Amino acid sequence: MIDTRKVLRSFRFAGQGIVDLFRFENNAKVHGLAALAVLGLGLWLGLGRIEWALLVTQIGLVWAAEAVNTALEKLCDHVTPDRHPQIKAIKDMASGAVLIMALTAATVGSIILGSHLIDRFF
Prior knowledge:
mainly alpha; Helix Hairpins; 4 helices
């Protein structure tokens, strides 16, 4: 049987993690502003359902990557506050993963939004 209280508590903890991500992490705020710009532009351009699904998926993936990166950085800082070459490599790779995801999202966004902008203005 499912313990509903445990499930609800897990959702509350996860929700707090999301709140903390956007409250304390500057890069998450930057990604949030970019997402708002993309969503606003998408509304203005009148995107179709599939295009919305692709854009929203990309936004979610970037935020998820940022959350995992932040968690790894905090764990690394907890393990050792001192500089260590392995910790640096871990942090660099995790932030590189966010950059890969952000560049992928920007590419998908450019393909979708760019084609609509070209149709509208040219």
